[in-house]
Design a protein that fits this description.
single chain; about 160 residues; alpha/beta; seven-stranded mixed sheet; two-stranded antiparallel sheet; 6 helices; 9 strands; globular
């Protein structure tokens, strides 16, 4: 059972590892990211950030979609973390997911700031709008105790 999908450019770190995993009651974290699957240093760092008693799986987006659609993840209270809005969009549109939390995304010259820690490119804004038009919930929240802010109200 999917308990959450989160976009966070830092992937698994203290705030996500402990606050979100605990608040969601997750017993398995899926890091869906191609770069991490090919980077042993990042993989090791992420494994060290994993909360005790929580299973950690690291897969690329394509393999994550296959796993979600196959039902192999159904036995877990699964929390998925992706690095980008594009990755979240791909998962949501190909694996029957209808809710995402935007956590932290990097500010660059190409991004627009839409909340304290969420910065999106024009392309990402278009993807978020598509998800909203599809009927999906796109919320912005740094920590579980923050008030939920819907992206449709700030775009």
């Amino acid at each position: 059972m999917l308990v959450g999908l989160r976009v966070d450019h830092r992937l698994l770190h203290g705030q996500v590892a402990f606050s979100w995993t605990s608040a969601l009651g997750a017993d398995c974290i899926l890091i869906a990211n191609i770069a991490v699957t090919n980077d042993n240093l990042r993989k090791t760092a992420i494994k060290m950030a994993k909360p005790a008693g929580t299973k950690l799986v690291i897969k690329n987006i394509e393999d994550s979609i296959k796993a979600l659609n196959s039902g192999v993840t159904d036995k877990y209270k699964l929390f998925i973390i992706v690095e980008s809005v594009k990755d979240a969009y791909e998962l949501m549109t190909k694996a029957d997911i209808h809710s995402v939390t935007l956590g932290g995304t990097k500010a660059t010259n190409e991004t627009k700031n839409i909340s304290k820690a969420v910065n999106l490119t024009d392309e990402e804004i278009s993807l978020v709008k598509e998800l909203i038009e599809r009927g999906d919930e796109v919320e912005i929240r740094m920590v579980p105790t923050d008030k939920k802010m819907l992206a449709k109200n700030v775009l």
